[in-house]
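Illustration: Purine nucleoside phosphorylase LACC1.
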Amino acid sequence: MVEAVLLDLFDLPATLQNSIQGLLCNTLETIEKCSSMPAPFVYVMCCQRQGSERHGEQESLLPALSGFQSLKKRLEVVRALTTAAALYTIKQRLDEKDLSIIKVILPALRKDLMKVYINHLFTAVYQFEFEDLQVASDCENLQIAEPWSEGQTLPMQDVALIQSEIQMYLESLPSLKGELTILRSSLIPDDIFLHGFTTRTGGISYIPTLSSCNLFSSSKRRDPQVVVKENLRRLANVAGFNPETFHRVKIDHANAVCVMGKTEPDSYDGIVTNQKGVTVAAPGADCIPVLFADPVRKACGAAHSGWKGTLLGVSMATVNAMVSEYGCNVKDILVVLGPSVGPCCYKLPHESAKEFHKIDPKCVRIFDSASPYIDIRKATRILLESGGILPENIQDDSVTDHNQNITFCTACHPDKFYSHFRDGSNFGTQIGFISIKD
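Result:
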């Protein structure tokens, strides 16, 4: 069932300008007549002319709205200077109400254009139907809609202009939830490496569980890639790296490692490089973002270590890649464990907990329960030390510094970090990143 209707009046042809009111009233009458209760939310998207708000344009455009009783509190006119701004505002309204099934009624000549905007500003969470803007005489037009098929028919230069318009608009938005904050380790020498762990502040993501510096997009979440890209651009500006040479692991919750400059695996949870100016990163939203640095051979790496990856030894796999590819000595490699879910909060089913108990009984608390508490950081440290990493070369503040300089529990600090364990499926993601300075 359609949850919201978007009526696109942004750029009507000149031949229709004189009949906007008639088209609008006919369309709203059809929506009101054909919708089941409650009526869908309706958003009318219009171009904001310079100074038009001073001439009562909204009142003259929508003189009969008071007659649509079932829509009166569900109808909003959204004005903006660009389509990107108007559509992003409507997206915010949809997200506030958790709506995802949308009918778009628009002139036929705007359809291909609108599909490109939607493709960039929305994810697969949303379902769109399209209908030509016309005077409808019955309910049939409202219920039979063209499903949105993938594929763009616009010329590439038009698509590029839309992308540029979206980017410019997102860059103009204010940062949310405070300044962009980066946590840095004193273990990694800052004269050789640029590195850090992000927190959740200083980006533009507005959905509560994603707000505000979310750095991961997926088909299951409401943050589109363009928003994540803008958050990354802001991070890069503050941190001082080039977002065009930024590489993030492709999560598989396993132990494959990508060596920069070689053939990239389809998925991998570790990544290493000895190229200057190339930033490698690993996400985490309870899973551990682990950073690796060898100041002697000037090589670095990042790994995403969840409970599965920890058991499969992804951290030592990353160390071994640095040793084999760059001639690193394992005793020179520095390892920093970033913000991640702590043993205070993290539980696993008993069968999975057994595997951590085998590494060391101290990795599991209340072992006899159905869901014991697990310390994936301790397990990671034990496996790293078993592989030859010196204990003093591993930073885990949950052990060494109770002031929690870096290794906070993500689930315990909702003001600072995202947490899948705490926030559910529509969660945000922070990252750990590192590069060799030029």
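Reading the tokens back as a structure: Confidence is low (pLDDT under 50) at residues 54-59, 135-145.
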